[in-house]
């Protein structure tokens, strides 16, 4: 499985102090979110790509696509 995007709007670097770790990591949807980064423009989600593309994550994505 792979991931394709239509476009990249920008690339930014953040320091670890800017990250707020997800406290709800045990919840199903939140298990794919590693951290939140608050910016002046809004909130950025830092996704756990390894978890999304794991065998379980792949099955879940396919299940959601086939709904």
Key descriptive features of the protein:
alpha+beta, 67 residues, 2 helices, globular, 3 strands
Largest sheet: 3 strands, antiparallel
- Low-confidence parts, pLDDT < 50 over ≥5 residues? none
**Helix segment tally:** 2
Rg from C-alpha positions?
14 Å
Strand order of the largest sheet: 1-2-3
Class per helix and strand makeup: alpha+beta
Helix content: 10-25%
Q: Span between N and C termini?
A: 18 Å
| General shape | globular
Mean pLDDT, all residues: 80
What percentage of amino acids are in beta strands? 15-25%
Helix and strand string, N-terminal first?
Answer: EEEHH
Number of strands: 3
Can you offer a commentary on this structure?
This protein has 67 residues and is of the alpha+beta class. Helices cover 22% and strands 21% of the residues. The chain contains two helices and three strands. It has a three-stranded antiparallel sheet, with no helix packed on it. The two termini are 18 Å apart. The mean pLDDT is 80.
